[in-house]
Write the structure tokens for this entry.
Amino acid sequence: MNVGTDARKPVLGGTPMNAGYESTIVADELLQLASKSNDTLTPMQLLKLVYLAHGWMLGIYGVPLIRESIEAWRYGPVIPDLYHKVKKFRDQPVDRSALSSGQQVESLGEREKKLIEDVYKKYGKLSGIQLSMLTHKKGSPWDQCYEDGKRNIRISNDIIEDYFGRLFQEYVRQVQEERDGGCLREAGK
């Protein structure tokens, strides 16, 4: 993520459920980015990319990107509302028209657009299976919440924020070490 080290803002008491955007707005932005790259996204890719963007938004800024809840399903974290809009495409590319509600939609802010673009650049070329494996990692929010055979298990924003916040802090630490190590190498010459 190309974000400054002071970008993380604390949030007290978790995040309100009505904060953020509709997941279809984020999905549409990702589909536009894919189209600009002469690429397409399957439903699995799109769902995982929206989830990852939401996670990074929570982890870096402490605010949700999407307002819908996320559930731990067998194949990973899923945004049910978005899933039901794109499932008909199965393993084929999602058509942007499937996301349109015909109503005026709110616009993403510049910070959100930049974060979604960074997520697309980092993860957009991964297959649905690769993204699924990424979201299934030991200790991930899905891993913490999923119970085999149970349905509708909600993954709280607090769990997602904590996980991606730790990933962001690790990223910042690595960047600082590389920067500091580079200075020390120069000074040692």
